[in-house]
Amino acid sequence: MDAAIPVTLVGPKVSFTGTEDLGVGGSDAVRCKLFMSTLAGTVMDWFISLLDGHVTSFPQLTKLFKAQYIANRAPPSISYDLFDVRQYQGESLKEFLHRFGAQVVRLNLKDEKMMVHAFRKGIVPGPFSESLIQNHPKTFAEIRRRAVAHIVAKEEVSEKRTCVVPTRARATGRSQTLRVHEETTEMKTPVKQQPYQPRKPNARGRGRDTVPPRHDFVVELKDLIIIPNVAERLKVPPKTDKRLGPNKNAWCEFQQAFSHLIRNCLALGHQLDELVKNGLLRDYLQEKHGTEDMAATGGGPGHEVPVHGEVHTIT
């Protein structure tokens, strides 16, 4: 404490907390005195806890100090730390290339094979990563050169996409040639739509357009066709674009189509008639008061029968 500090000696201007690296000049006693003045916080508490007269020289103080705070020293970097450099999500190739190159310089690496392998492991999947897999680079300088070329090409493509394409100026004083297809120059005869007419039955009277007999059932037709043992015996005709009747607003629950009502559906009527003749719908028929001939022909005078969506009365 009695040591005089020379006027020309400039001591440390920071307080040491255990992590800084300070340089002290002067004699052995001066260095001890100046070093003590830089301590603060827990480091000062440690210095005060030393026994009086225990420190006899600055080298001894240095040895005690290093033993106490050796754990604060950063571990030296090793070459395998390069494999910890990974491209972040959203980080551009340019940013990752700069960060990876800075680590190569910091580690002072010379092993080209290790640098190439570490870069391929650290880069995220993408077009440039795929190019490295298809064409393996041999040196990190080659990776850098190819990466720069890829970045420049990508920037040019991005600039091209955002570029506004100018419109061509319209020529003035010049008439445009009108090109007309040859077929449009000829007047076509308009096709006259024919009114709906039902086809006549064949000579034997068993065509699909013949009117099937109408039977009276205890339930409505739309409910009858969904009864399991009845539905499994019915076959719905395939969908067609052909017009099935004159009434476009009428809905047939059997064929799931517009143009006729279900009671006027010929396809359903023929199938139900076959099932009645085979006795499969006996439980669903109402009791009839007419003659058998009348049932076989679809009714007698005053009875309505469907013909292609139209109801006609038999007189």
Question: Any overview of this molecule?
Answer:
- It is a single chain.
- With 315 residues, this protein is mostly helical.
- It has 3 domains: 1-74, no CATH class; 79-160, Non-ribosomal Peptide Synthetase Peptidyl Carrier Protein, Chain A; 221-313, no CATH class.
- 37% of the residues lie in helices and 5% in strands.
- The protein is built from 12 helices and 4 strands.
- It has helices spanning 28-37, 41-48, 58-69, 93-107, 112-122, 127-134, 140-162, 182-185, 221-224, 228-231, 266-277, 292-296, and strands spanning 247-252, 257-259, 304-307, 310-313.
- The strands form 2 sheets. The chain has a two-stranded antiparallel ribbon. A two-stranded antiparallel ribbon has the order 3-4.
- The protein is elongated, with a radius of gyration of 51 Å.
Looking at this protein, list some descriptive labels:
315 residues; mainly alpha; Non-ribosomal Peptide Synthetase Peptidyl Carrier Protein, Chain A; 3 domains; two-stranded antiparallel ribbon; 12 helices; 4 strands; 37% helix; elongated
